[in-house]
């Protein structure tokens, strides 16, 4: 159960093609955005759809997978952990970033029906 302390699962669509960076020692990192949608009916009967954008990070072989198999619009299921970090911008302001670091990723395959 200790692995469940910082664990999340998201299902959504990739917002842009993964950006791949190869670091000095050959490690790869892939970064992309993921849109998740929450749809519900409000009390007055109107349909409401909220989209949340998530920053996704994949390392090593998961970055290789992202580079080879993922493109904008793909639906994926991601299991990972939430990471928060901060940095100072050029003006000295502190900026905060939340990211999901991938542990596992699954590309959802859409079934196609043959026409008769």
In summary, what is this structure?
This protein is mainly beta and 116 residues long. It is 9% helix and 57% strand. It has a single domain, classed as Beta Barrel (OB fold (Dihydrolipoamide Acetyltransferase, E2P)), CATH 2.40.50.
Task: Set down the secondary structure blueprint.
Blueprint: E1 8-14, E2 19-22, E3 28-41, E4 47-59, H1 60-69, E5 75-88, E6 94-107
Parallel strand pairs: 4-6
Antiparallel strand pairs: 1-3, 1-5, 2-3, 3-4, 5-6
Account of the 3D structure:
The chain is mainly beta and 116 residues long. It has a single domain, classed as Beta Barrel (OB fold (Dihydrolipoamide Acetyltransferase, E2P)). The chain is 9% helix and 57% strand. The chain contains one helix and six strands. Strands 1-3-4-6-5 form a five-stranded mixed β-barrel. The longest helix is centred in the middle third of the chain and has 10 residues, at 60-69.
What about the largest sheet? Answer: 5 strands, mixed, barrel
The counted number of beta strands is: 6
Q: Decide which structural class fits the backbone.
A: mainly beta
CATH superfamily: Nucleic acid-binding proteins
Q: Helical region count?
A: 1
Q: Classify the oligomer.
A: single chain
Shape: globular
Average pLDDT works out at: 91
User: Unreliable segments (pLDDT under 50, ≥5 consecutive)?
Assistant: none
Per CATH, the architecture is: Beta Barrel
What is the CATH topology assignment?
OB fold (Dihydrolipoamide Acetyltransferase, E2P)
The fraction of residues assigned to DSSP E strands is over 45%
Separation, N- and C-terminal Cα atoms: 50 Å
The neighbouring-strand order within the major sheet is 1-3-4-6-5
> How many domain regions?
1
What would CATH call the class?
Mainly Beta
Fraction of residues in H or I helices: under 10%
Radius of gyration: 17 Å
State the order of secondary-structure elements, H for helix, E for strand: EEEEHEE
